[in-house]
Amino acid sequence: MEYITFDFSSKIKTFVSKFKNKSGTEEFHFTFQPLCWGYAQDQLEWIKSAYSKAIEELGLCEETAIFRRFLCSDLINQAQVLEGLDFSSSNPARSGCAVSKVSQPPCGAAKLSLWAYHAAQSGEAVKKESGRSFVSFTPNSQRHIFSASLNSMDAESSYLQTYAVFDELAGRLDKNSMTLKDNVVRTWFYVQNVDGNYKGLVDARREIFEKEGLTKDTHFIASTGIEGAWDNPACKVLLDYYAIDNPAKNQIQYISAPEWLSPTHIYGVTFERATSIKYTDRIHTLISGTASIDKEGVVVHSEDFFGQFERTVQNIDALLSQAGSSREHLAAITVYLRDPSDSGPAEELINRCFPGVPCLLVVAPVCRPGWLVEIEGIAITPAEQPNMPAF
After folding, report:
1. Residue pair 181/213 in contact by the 8 Å Cβ criterion
2. Nearest-angstrom CA–CA distance, 389 and 121
3. In percent, how much of the chain has pLDDT > 70?
4. DSSP state of 247
5. Cα 117–Cα 144–Cα 245 angle in degrees, nearest 5
6. CATH code at 190?
7. Per-residue model confidence (pLDDT) at position 123
8. What is the distance between the terminal CA atoms of the chain, rounded to a whole angstrom?
């Protein structure tokens, strides 16, 4: 993994990871976070300017964009600002990619921060198609879909909204000849008032998974379930997902590290700790939201932020190791804090534990109140597996 830092302006920090191997498809992960106070409109312009300069420096065109996620301090009041630029529009016909927007306040002076993912071949865009809030891309023979902001406000409870969101997901998958069990490899659930509404999501998801054949004896889906809101306060559950068409036999591997952290089902939750997807020249390892937990499912280092951060990193190391990877292969991470006053120590720990890795640090309470920090990420590891599909 190649890590690049751009200093285009004192107002914003720009981090990039770049991966290229024999298939010829290059992958880029970017993070942009403003460093000083400014109105949301101003900060969005700073981000857009740095973004344009970064892709130019890297020899990319804008059409190589696949996915952008804006993490916002006050999305209800910032949604109109974001929709005012094609770059940050939810409509892929304007933005050229899938765009997710979540109310998760960035730490520090930022009102907005951005994670972006690009895929390119010789600097040019891979084959892409778009629809309502989703983009599919086909770097070689296999089609990939990123979709953003699935929601339903026809019901009031998080339980019923989760059912409605999965119904919408099933419809979209069916149109693409996909299923939840066979094709969805990563989900992000954003839950308004996670302390009060997470149980409704958990219960509904477990029931739906059982009907779809997703159990502890088959597999679940790598996931993050975290505090987050949309631009409509009636929305209690918001979903982003990533799916892969026609996976090859043994291409997808479900990762666990039971000596370090328990399976999720022992405390009633249904997601994989991590999932690896194998290609001819690389392995993608999708690390679910990971916290300070032990092999019995118990919170470790209660009320100790430093201890929890350290244990979380150890758990991530264990998962990466099981996938044949390590921290040096991380392409991007997101760090979620329950308490914004922990942001100073968190930045120091991130710089020490994940030097150079594109990272967003936001305030978003974790699904269990005792957890003070959660980290998710993606790793891209070089490999030689000629029997697997090319990326």
Report:
1. yes
2. 16
3. 100
4. P
5. 160
6. 3.30.1330.40
7. 76
8. 16
